[in-house]
């Protein structure tokens, strides 16, 4: 847990890293890995989403560490927040790079990340097509949103029924 957080935090001395991890046990593991690697990172307990409020968070397989937001308040209750609101309120700085693995909520998060996307140089996404559809979206809509924000994307890796996108500002 936190591999990319630790890599980003060690990339340069002047890097500011913010990680979002709403699942308590995953967040604890993330804190431990950050400390073990001597990385300065802010770990926030909210889940990024298209709305600010409360939602359910549940795991499809016990013990796998993969949690997804639920629309029906199933599972543990977690706070959700719109990414743009955190930047607009100066709670976090405008990121230059975003790495996202939100178990199917990719499109939901990007819908409220318009301002951030305008300033992001690189975006790395783990895409879960079937889960995006469960949330009422599509990968076509996801990829169009990335393109419309001025980024050129390509698939860099596939694993099972998910794939990884790298999007760079044009």
From TrEMBL:
Return the InterPro entries for the record: FkbM_mtfrase, SAM-dependent_MTase, SAM-dependent_MTases_sf
What GO molecular-function term can you cite, just one?
methyltransferase activity
Gene3D superfamilies with a match to the protein in the record: Vaccinia Virus protein VP39 (3.40.50.150)
Pfam families the record matches: Methyltransf_21
Q: Which GO terms describe its biological process?
A: methylation
Q: Which residues form the Methyltransferase FkbM domain?
A: 16-153
Q: Which UniProt keywords apply?
A: Methyltransferase, Transferase
Identification of the protein by name:
Methyltransferase, FkbM family
Q: Give the species.
A: Natronobacterium haloterrestre (Halobiforma haloterrestris)
């Amino acid at each position: 847990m936190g591999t990319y957080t630790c890599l980003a935090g060690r990339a340069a001395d002047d890097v500011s890293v913010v990680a979002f991890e709403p699942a308590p046990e995953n967040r604890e593991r993330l804190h431990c890995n950050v400390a073990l690697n001597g990385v300065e990172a802010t770990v926030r307990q909210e889940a990024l989403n298209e709305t600010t409020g409360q939602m359910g968070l549940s795991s499809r397989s016990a013990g796998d560490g993969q949690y997804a937001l639920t629309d029906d308040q199933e599972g543990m209750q977690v706070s959700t927040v719109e990414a743009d609101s955190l930047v607009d309120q100066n709670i976090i700085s405008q990121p230059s790079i975003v790495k996202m693995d939100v178990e199917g909520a990719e499109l939901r998060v990007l819908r409220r990340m318009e301002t951030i996307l305008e300033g992001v140089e690189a975006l790395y996404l783990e895409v879960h097509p079937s889960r995006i559809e469960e949330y009422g979206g599509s990968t076509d809509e996801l990829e169009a949103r990335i393109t419309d924000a001025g980024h050129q994307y390509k698939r860099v890796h596939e694993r099972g029924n998910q794939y990884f996108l790298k999007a760079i500002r044009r």
